[in-house]
Amino acid sequence: MKHSFTITGMSCSACAKAVERAAGKLPGVTEASVNFATEKLTVEQEPPDEAAVVNAVEKAGYGAIPAGGETSEAILSIGGMHCAACASSIEKGLSKLPGVENSSVNLATEKAMIRYRPDQTGISVFRDTIEKLGFSVVETSRRGAADSERERKKADMRAHLFRVIAACSFALPLFYLAMGAMLDWPIPDALHPMKYPLIFALAQVTLLVPIVAAGSSFFTVGTRALLRLSPNMDSLIAIGTTAAMVYSSVSIYRMAVGDLAAMNDLYFETAGVILALVMLGKYFEARSKGQTSEAIYRLMELAPPTATVLRDGREVEIDAAELQMEDLVIIKPGGRIPVDGVLIEGSSAVDESMLTGESIPVDKNVGDRVTAGSINRHGSFVFRATRVGDDTTLSRLIRLVEEAQARKAPIARLADIVSGYFVPVVVIIAIVSAAAWLLSGSTLPFALTVFIAVLVIACPCALGLATPTAIMVGTGKGAEYGILIKSGEALETAHKVQTVVLDKTGTITEGRPVLAAVVPFAEFTEEDVLRLAASAEKGSEHPLGEAVVKGAEERNIVLLPSEGFTALPGMGVEARIGGRDVVLGNIALLSGRGIASEGAKMVLEGLSDEGKTPMLLGVDGRLAGIVAVADTVKPTSATAVDRMKEMGLSVVMMTGDNERTARSIARQVGIDRVLSGVLPDGKAGEVKRLQQEGRVVAMVGDGINDAPALVQADVGIAIGSGTDVAIESADIVLVHSDLRDIPSAIELSQRTMRTIRQNLFWAFFYNIIGIPVAAGVLHIFGGPLLNPIYAALAMSFSSVSVVTNALRLKSFKPLRLSSTALKGEMTK
Amino acid sequence: MRKIFPILVLMALPLVWIASGKADVVKKFGSVSFAEMMANPRSGASVSDGLVSVTGPDGQVFLLWESGTAFLIPAGPFLEAGLDTSKLPGNIIFDAAAGTLLIGDAPVRGGDNALGEIFNSFLKTKRPALGYHGAMDHFGLDVGGEGKFEWAIRPEKNDKDVVFILDPRPLERAGLRPLEVKGWALLDLDVTMNSKAPRLASLFEIR
């Protein structure tokens, strides 16, 4: 079973590795994977043991909160309180409830604030409890887990910012004091190192203390990691700055005992400025990382935290998490729909743009489906909940994106391997470099400078962030535009796609064929042919059959009862109607039943050339007529195919239709290669054949019969309007059922992969160049020695730059929304 | 508050040390070093009539008393190098009878204080005049504006044990050609931790 946790206290990819190791060692764990960017740990464990995982992670020095263990916050306005005793009794009553972590009631504001586990309790329980105590609940509001998570992150950011400001406020005067003496900036006589060297040093200590306090986590986390023999970035900073501080403290001692030359060996400002700069860099990094999760928060915010339901004939506001199937939910104008359901009373126009991309509100009447996250524009209505909790369309979309972001892309593997060894290797390089300089006759301060610079410049964070941040922004941006990429692996493979195979019905076409022609033969009339064909198809769920039935109904033709209905996949149907044997399907089916159809050849070819799908009707062993249905091509399909061709992709259409019909549709959208007459069970085989040609194949489909081909393809792309099976089998889901999102998905994948490569290149290049420079390689050839302060600046810049580069992906716009696409559509 | 308290304590500890006066190591070790230098028979040092003097091999004298410092320098080499005594600024006095230049404060004689008492009394009012020159490992006392009297902390490890330093600029304005002053060298010397300037220097060893 897979379960996930939010991890706190990680500072770099080495921390992520340590958490993975800790969780991975537990019994029953087959996989433990940490996404450093999302700070999420996913554990595959049988039997699941959340407590053990939390324990193991905590032992490793980090925090773990099981998914769903997040708390929510409710604020209730309470009526009927008169004194502090009333407030106290409510507080006690609420605190006793299981799942309530804390509650406080403010008599002055008449409000109760309750922090609770939404999986254990909810607003309706609080309401009942308060009412039983003799008070009333006037109004409720709730902050959901997503809001709480956001609040927690915001609070963390505020605390982080405070620490950064504090550190910088002291680092600036410290830097001025230390450097001012050397650079002849004005310094008060009382602090001048040539007059009062020890006071000069002690003043620096005073300024350094708050900086060290603000950055204390570097020392606590870094030391813990070091003691566990899994040093991380904090360990590097802690070792480097501690070395500077210890050496400078020895200098203070030396001065105190009369060796005033030690005033030249003070490095307090190095330690202070390094800490402040790294904290500043980490702050910007955290801020940028926060932006990478925006898309998922935006999806989460679509569902309202509370819902109004009808209970015993009265309206009651409850926690949306408490909604049950069959609950009757009241939606007022401007309200958001909390769960999926079917409208049973009233009517309205509903804005479903966030889920379908359709900007015009959709009219909803009794019997229509409504989806969680959409917004009611005008009237009020009541609907019956049909999908609640994690089962709503919105929850499934969120889950898809979250899972995609939690999974690692194969390209991250190299960075992961390097991260595991990075920090210990850097420590060794720092020690060896410093020792080499000492042995070559350099002074101890020189060797110390090299030692600190190597530790500080090394940046495992950039390596750890290079891939997940780009994947988060890429998948998040895709989700925002209805392109759901289900894994990092899919994102990575999509950019390599060379051939796109498009299923015809429902993918290139609307998938809602209509009756287009009825051709009678012999003594049969047009009405006879349509009646018999529609009666035979009545039990069919095939879209072609449904079109025939609908066509007959529209012509007010009364259908006859049928017996022995048999669907023959890819061929047609047969049934017994009014005592006659009726067969409806393709030539192969009729031939198989011994019915000659040569006389209809001309008609069949004519219909096929027009893009219609003809079905031959055989009655009692004779050809009785032809019914033809036609499916209309989606208005955007041709633009999508054009774009894919521009991108150098080979586009193939695959259909069960005959060659002529298929060619006609392919011509309309500009596809050259057609695989026609492919039976449902042959689709996967066709994809495999294309793969054997050495092509990387993406298969796009919408039906159950496409599922094997979607799985067989290197990338399976399901159209969102399709079946659940297709969506489950696919790697990418296009929510808007718009083919233009196929090239957009591939472009998004290409841009994301380009960003990942740039990030990885930068992260590796930075460390490969930075570490030798810090070790003094340039100095050997007469070049400068890197000041550790510049090393800290470079280190902070490197991780910020990686995240910022990933954020550039936010500018991505799908073809559907780009101006060139719109112009193209208008021209067509 | 609980977290801030230890931080404030740690911040205050160095300040307490400073406030105790024990952190003024230049004063503490400078006094000792000055006494050691004075005790060295080759330094030409003496204390008399409240006046501490250190005499160089060319007759140049550093003077220290409870309220000031000065150089008393034979004027001959300067006059030969073009010095026009009528153009000297107020803090440089030419004594034609004695043939000397007095640079700095006007000496105040009197009292029978010992060296330590005179030095400490001087530092009570003129503490910033005493400094430590890290690059040379010298202590130094300011004399007459930008002049300085420096002595090595460890003469056994230093080749410039006692140094008389003059700012040549006011003398140049009075016609002096600094490069031509016999017994004195025009050198680029540290004036701050990071900058150098031309100074007339006369130095000798006392090892």
Any key phrases for this structure?
heterodimer; A: 828 residues; alpha+beta; Alpha-Beta Plaits; Calcium-transporting ATPase, cytoplasmic transduction domain A; seven-stranded mixed sheet; six-stranded antiparallel sheet; 30 helices; globular; disordered C terminus; B: 207 residues; 12 strands
Short summary of the structure?
Chain A has 30 helices and 30 strands. Chain A has 828 residues and is of the alpha+beta class.
Report on the architecture of this protein.
The complex is a heterodimer of chains A (828) and B (207). With 828 residues, chain A is an alpha+beta fold. Among the domains of chain A are: 2-69, Alpha-Beta Plaits (2-Layer Sandwich), CATH 3.30.70.100; 152-294; 304-391, Calcium-transporting ATPase, cytoplasmic transduction domain A; 484-508 and 635-742, 3-Layer(aba) Sandwich (Rossmann fold); 514-630, Calcium-transporting ATPase, cytoplasmic domain N, CATH 3.40.1110. Chain A is 50% helix and 20% strand. In chain A, strands 18-30-29-28-19-26-27 form a seven-stranded mixed β-sheet, with helices on both faces. Chain A has a six-stranded antiparallel β-sheet with strand order 10-9-11-17-12-15, with no helix packed on it. In chain A, a hairpin with a 2-residue loop joins strand 9 and strand 10. Chain A starts with a strand and ends with a helix. The model of chain A is unreliable at 821-828 (pLDDT under 50). Chain B is an alpha+beta fold. Chain B has one domain (23-204). Helices cover 26% and strands 32% of the residues of chain B. Chain B has five helices and twelve strands. Chain B has helices spanning 4-19, 25-39, 76-80, 115-126, 168-173; strands spanning 45-48, 51-55, 61-65, 68-74, 92-95, 100-104, 130-133, 138-143, 147-152, 162-166, 185-190, 196-204. In chain B, the strands form two sheets. In chain B, strands 1-2-3-4-6-5 form a six-stranded antiparallel β-sheet. Chain B has a six-stranded antiparallel β-sheet with strand order 7-8-9-10-12-11, covered by helices on one side. The radius of gyration of chain B is 19 Å and the shape is globular. Classes of the chains: A alpha+beta (828), B alpha+beta (207). Chain A binds chain B through residues 181-184, 189, 192-199, 202-203, 205-206, 209-210, 213, 255-256, 258, 260-261, 263-264, and chain B through 3, 7, 10-12, 14-15, 17-18, 23-26, 29, 127-128, 130-134, 137, 153, 192-195.
